[in-house]
Amino acid sequence: MGIVNMNNKNQTCIDECNKCAQACLECMKMCLEEPDVANRKKCIAKLNECISICHESAKFMIMDSCHATNLCKLCGTICDECAQECGAFKDDHCAKCAAQCKKCAQECQSMQ
């Protein structure tokens, strides 16, 4: 996207974080509507963590914060955890979310 700074060196990672947060929000909404919602408590909590860290990581990269790399490393860890949680459920929305979380984790962990 890159509305203002089209040349942000971290634009790919910013985009992946934003996509991941959206995927997690959509997945969480759908998980809350599933008949086994009580079994998804841990997954829903991890989705919420992932949404928050992805939003913050994107903001830190946009601001070119000196802490962006460290935050992105943590984001990668949380995205991996979220992918594992979502992977425990066989719903299409969970599978798509897990795939996006894995993609974001790889991008965040490659930050330098």
TrEMBL record:
Pfam family, one: Csp
Family annotation (InterPro entries): Csp_YhjQ, YHJQ-like
Record PANTHER family: CYTOPLASMIC PROTEIN, CYTOPLASMIC PROTEIN-RELATED
Protein name: Four-helix bundle copper-binding protein
Species classification: Bacteria, Bacillati, Bacillota, Clostridia, Eubacteriales
